[in-house]
Write a structure and sequence with these properties.
InterPro entries: Thi_PPkinase, Thiamin_PyroPKinase_B1-bd, TPK_B1-bd_sf. With about 110 residues, the protein is mostly beta strands. The protein has one helix and nine strands.
Length: about 110
C-alpha cells in the first residue's frame, strides 16, 4: 500500500512497480493513454483499478472486455480480470487508474 501511495503522491512522475509476475503504473486522468504491449514479456492478463475517487466514465480499446464510458469504484465494478487482445491498448478515464499487467516467466 505504501508503494501505491508513492505513485499517487508523485503522479507527475512515471513510476513503475515491477515484481516477478506483474507491472503496475498510474494512469493520470489528464491524458488519453496509449500503452504499447510487448507481447513477448507482458500479458495477457491485465486490469484497471480506480484509485482515489470512483470513475464515472472509463473507456478502453484493445482489451477482450473493453470499457465504454463505464463507471468503476471499490466495492463495485473494477476491471481486474481483463485480457489484452491488441498490441496497443488505449485508456481514458475521468479519474486516476492503476494499470496492471502480468509479466511472463522467461
Amino acid at each position: 500500500m505504501g508503494n501505491l501511495n508513492v505513485i499517487c503522491r508523485f503522479s507527475s512522475m512515471r513510476i513503475v512497480l515491477l515484481s516477478n509476475d506483474s507491472l503496475i503504473q498510474l494512469l493520470p486522468r489528464t491524458y488519453c493513454h496509449e500503452i504499447h504491449i510487448q507481447t513477448s514479456v507482458e500479458g495477457p492478463h491485465c486490469g484497471l483499478i480506480p484509485i482515489g475517487t470512483p470513475s464515472k466514465s472509463s473507456t478502453t480499446t484493445g482489451l477482450q472486455w473493453d470499457l465504454n464510458n463505464t463507471a468503476m469504484e471499490f466495492g463495485g465494478l473494477v476491471s481486474t480480470s481483463n485480457i489484452v487482445k491488441e498490441e496497443k491498448v488505449t485508456v481514458q478515464s475521468d479519474c486516476d487508474l492503476l494499470w496492471t499487467i502480468s509479466i511472463k516467466k522467461l
